[in-house]
Amino acid sequence: MSYEEIKEGKILLLVPEHDDGLGPKKTGEDVFYNPSMQMNRDTCISFLSSFIRDGARALDGMSATGVRGLRILKETSISNVTLNDVSHESVDLIKKNVESNSVSEQVKVTNDSIEKHLIENRYEYDYVDVDPFGTPVPYYPLAARYVSHNGVVGVTATDTSVLCGTYPRTCRRRYSVEPENNWCRHENGLRALIAYCVREAARHDRWVEPLLSYYEGHHFRTYLRIGEGAKKADKCLDKLKKITFHDYWWEQKDMRKDPISGPFWMGKLHSEAVLKDMDAVGSLSEKVLSLWRDEMSLPPFFYDTNEVSSSLETRPPPIKKIIRDLKEEGFRTSRTHFSPTGIKTEAPHETLRKMIIRL
Question: What are the CA-CA distances from residue 139 to residues 116, 202, 297 (Å)?
């Protein structure tokens, strides 16, 4: 295998020769490095810097080249990091990257499946990163069960087409969710992923609190604080709801009635305190952080201005005008990172219809 040296964040790294293009990548038997996931890793650094306390212990459970775990060590206050991978080739490369960054005494490198490692080191880690190629379903349950009390699990899902409803049968099998492939597909997918995570943790009387959750490019990512407590787990389950989508709006339904979509997580996607303390890092811009902050406190799901305008057989007005007028009428409103033509608002759908007709 041919390698090249790159710089990401504050580390120098040997990685396999790779395609620098954006978009999803294919994986095989070789060591895997995906440059298009740098924002995922930059966001991880910003999140951990704002939230995780000094002295915390972190597991990069599917480390590949070691890039995420080494950046955590170099760029956050976490000084106890385990880099683990099931691949012997990956572990050999990880050791080279650990040595070249002069952190051999601060890092533990292990060669196990993440499942075996978590079982043998239960409750040892305050942060566990689950970043697979594809679905996290085979790996998340043990991370949720064995992260320390009040610890955090970072979960990536790259099977976005499944969670967004393109393959509904697969979504039912993997996540026990009836998906909906509509204008809200990316928010649907993220809330379906969190709902799955909540249910899996609750099986072991553990509660879940999303601290930061987003969609970007070709993946979903959520950071979940997890702790012991059956009553709090029940309260989390109460936030899972089924809904029905109409032509361009939705309404909540009782889970015991009607053939509808979900269940989706209907609680908050972010912690206000965490987002307030996060800083721009690398490809994570202040513009993105501001957008997450703006939409954070608004209701779940959003309107797509093109969809609403199409239903009215009219051209969509400029989105800035819609947001301005809704705010002037007293409705909290924001753009959303899920869609460039989407808005989140407290306004009922009839108010939005009338406004679009007027504009």
Answer: 10, 16, 31
d(CA 251, CA 261): 11
What domains does the chain contain, in order, with CATH numbers? 3-283 (3.40.50.150), 294-358 (3.30.56.70)
CA 93 to chain CA centroid, Å, is 27
H/E run at residue 172: helix 168-175
Digit-coded pLDDT (tens) for 264-281: 999 999 999 999 999 999
Q: Do 275 and 241 contact (CB within 8 A), yes or no?
A: no
Burial of 168 (0-12, 13-18, 19+ CB in 10 A): middle
Among 131, 236, 249, smallest CA distance to 180 is for: 249
Rounded to whole angstroms, the maximal C-alpha distance in the chain is 66
**Which pLDDT does position 214 carry in this prediction?**
98
Residue 317: pLDDT over 70 = yes
Q: State pTM to two decimals.
A: 0.94
| Cα gap 70→63, rounded to integer Å | 9
CA dist 217 and 82 (Å) reads 28
Please state the φ and ψ torsions of residue 102, each to the nearest 5 degrees: 55, 45
